[in-house]
Amino acid sequence: MPGFVFNTTRQLIVEHGAAERLHEVVGKFSAERIFVVTDPGIAELGLLGPAIENLEKYGAKVELFDGVVADPPEAVVLEAVERARRMRAQLVIGFGGGSSMDVAKLVACFAHLHCRQSLQEAYGVGNLEGERLPLVQVPTTAGTGSEVTPISIVTTGETTKSGIVSPVLLPDVAVLDATLTVGLPRHVTAATGIDAMVHAIEAYTSKIRKNPMSDTLAREALRLLVTHIDRVMQDGRDLEARQAMLLGSCLAGQAFANAPVAAVHALAYPLGGHYHVPHGLSNALVLPAVLRFNAVTAADLYAELAPIFTQEARSRSNVDDCESFIASIEALLKRSGLPLRLRDVGVLESSLDELASDAMQQQRLLVNNPREVTERDALEIYRTVY
User: Fold this and answer.
1) What 3-state class would DSSP assign to 30?
2) DSSP-assigned beta bridge partners for residue 91
3) φ, ψ dihedrals at 207, nearest 5°
C-alpha cells in the first residue's frame, strides 16, 4: 500500500440542538470578540438568533456579517475581512451553506493580526501559509462538506472561479445540527444531497490521492446519503434522516478533502460562472454524462459502489454492475424533480464551446479524473446533457 497523508477538522460535534450551545464551544478558545459569517437568507430565517443570544449572554461581543452571496466574489471576501479586522476578531464562526463557510475560512486567515499575504497570492494549492484565527463551522445544508475541507472557492471574474487550497483552512470545530436543515425546500435538499454524493463518488475514483481512509469515508458517506435522500425529499421534517444526510455530507467532505474531486466539478463550475446555476444542481446536470465518459476506465470502481444502490449488484460482471450504478444515479435524478438538461436551466446551445473552454481551465480538478478529459470531450459531454 502506498503511503498517504490524511487531514481533517479537529473536532466534530454531531447532535440535535448543538448550534444553540455555541457558547460552550467558543468558551474553549477564550474568545471575547466573535465574528459570524452568514448570508441574508439565514439571517432572515432567524436560525442564528438563539446562538447569538447565548454567545452574548455569556459575555462575548458578536458582530454579524450577513453579506455572503452564492459563489462569493472577491469583494465580499475582502469586505468581510476588513470588518473582522476592525473589530479585532478573536474567533470566526461560519454559519450557513458552503459559500458562507468558505468566506469564514478566508476571514479567519486574512483577519489574523500577523497575516501578510494578499488574497491574490493565496490562490492555488499550498500557497496560503501562516496562522489563522480559531474557526468554527456550522453547516445548514447537507451538501458541500466545507466544514471539513481545506478549500475555499472564490469568484475571481465575471465567469471564473479560483480555489485556495491549504491545510491552514481546515476548521477547528464542525457542529452538525440537523435541526438547522429541517426547513430546506425539497429542491435544495435534493441538489445539496446529490452534491454530497458527487463528492463521495469522485473521491472514490480520484486518480492521484485516492487512499484507504478516503475510500472508507466515501463508501459510508454514499451509504448514508443513498439510504436517506428519498426520505428527506418526501418528508423534510424527518430529523433522523436529516442528521444522517448531514453526517453523510461531512464524511464525503472528509473524503474529497484528501482525495480531490475531478471532472464533474470541473464541468459544473462554468455553469455557475456563466449562468449562476447553483453548485449542487450544476453537478447533478453533468453527473450522468461524466460517469458514462469515465466508465471506460473506472468501471471496476463504479461496480464496487453499485451494491450501495441495489442488492442485485456484485452478482454479475463489473460491466453490468457499473451500468447498474449509473442507471441508479439517473433514476435518483429523475425522482428528485431537478432539471435534467442544460436547456432547462437557461443554458444557450451557442455557449457550449465557451463552457468547454472554461472547463479546461480547471486543471486543478481535471488531473484527478480517472480518464483524461480534452476540450473536445468536455464539449461532447455538454452536448450530451444539453
Assistant:
1) coil
2) 34
3) -75, -35
Match 455557449 to its residue by C-alpha cell. Answer: 351
Its pTM stands at 0.95
Is the Cβ–Cβ distance between 95 and 26 less than 8 Å? no
**Residue 234 phi, psi dihedral angles, 5° rounding:** -80, -35
DSSP 343: G
Phi, psi of 138 (to 5 degrees): -130, 95
Q: Can you state the percent helix, strand and coil of the chain, rounding each to 5?
A: 55, 10, 30
At 337-361, the pLDDT tens digits run: 999 999 999 999 999 999 999 999 9
- Torsion sign, CA atoms 308, 336, 262, 110: negative
Q: Which amino acid is at 312?
A: E
Q: In what order do the strands lie in the sheet with 33-37?
A: 11-14, 173-176, 135-139, 91-96, 33-37, 61-65
DSSP string for residues in 66-131: ----SS-BHHHHHHHHHHHHHTT-SEEEEEESHHHHHHHHHHHHHTSTT----HHHH-EES---S-
Residue type, 94: G
Integer Cα distance of 377 and 385 in angstroms: 13
Q: What are phi and psi of 357, to 5 degrees?
A: -65, -45
Longest CA–CA separation in the chain, Å: 63
Amino acid at position 163, single letter: G
pLDDT tens readout for residues 262-297: 999 999 999 999 999 999 999 999 999 999 999 999
Q: What span, in angstroms and rounded, lies between the C-alpha atoms of 311 and 289?
A: 24
- d(CA 154, CA 68) in angstroms, rounded, equals 11
